[in-house]
Amino acid sequence: GAGVSQSPRYKVAKRGQDVALRCDPISGHVSLFWYQQALGQGPEFLTYFQNEAQLDKSGLPSDRFFAERPEGSVSTLKIQRTQQEDSAVYLCASSYSVPRIRDRVRYEQYFGPGTRLTVT
Amino acid sequence: TQLLEQSPQFLSIQEGENLTVYCNSSSVFSSLQWYRQEPGEGPVLLVTVVTGGEVKKLKRLTFQFGDARKDSSLHITAAQTGDTGLYLCRGGSEKLVFGKGMKLTVNP
Asked: How far apart, in whole angstroms, are the C-alpha atoms of residue A78 and residue A67?
């Protein structure tokens, strides 16, 4: 399909393990966003890429979280030394537009199905 | 910190009933979006409102943005089982704030 895809869909990690979550945005989409959605909550912003440049990483909860998008298409969210509080669904979204910060929400973002991470 | 509060948080109704969901904030937003999210899927955009007082209709769904651009409502007429899902509002700001969502269950 032509939508945003994420892999794996489910990941179980033991506390202390490192994990890597992949996002394949819609082809040609310039903007890419990562969100964290805890059970029963709305998504929370983690980080934003414009092509390969990470323009905003203010939502990353700790230095154990790292995201990259080296060629401006596929992105990887890496979590080092996972903790139980990292358990959540991690959503990726992409957008064709390159909005100004204050207008970011005006442009439709297409979300992937998410990766459900469970840390035991 | 900009917060969006949604109410009610949970709603279980019978098919054919009407309902209204509210999204409120103490902050002014440049625009506001409503999404629906089904289990195991990402949120899907329903509508974007940008002008205070704006009303948009999408079939049986009516969205309104408050005059002061601090609140919004979503009204569903004659709910159907296919309307079941998590309804999220999101405010337009630098931090792209989502509300916690309203989990709607429409029973046949």
From this structure: 6
Distance from CA of B44 to the nearest CA of A (A): 7
Alpha carbons A35 and A47: distance in angstroms, whole number: 7
Is the Cβ of A103 closer than 8 Å to some Cβ of chain B? yes
- Token readout for B108 is 């046949």
Site from A55, A105, A106 to mutate, B interface, most B CB atoms within 10 angstroms: A105
- pLDDT (tens digit per residue) in A35-94: 999 988 899 999 999 999 999 999 999 999 999 999 999 999 999 999 999 999 999 999
- Order across the sheet with B71-76: list the strands: B5-7, B19-24, B71-76, B61-65, B55-58
Query: What are the two backbone dihedrals, phi and then psi, of residue B8, each rounded to the nearest 5 degrees?
Result: -70, 170
Amino acid at A111: F
- Where is pLDDT greater, at A39 or B55? B55
Q: Which residue has the tokens 């005059």?
A: B67
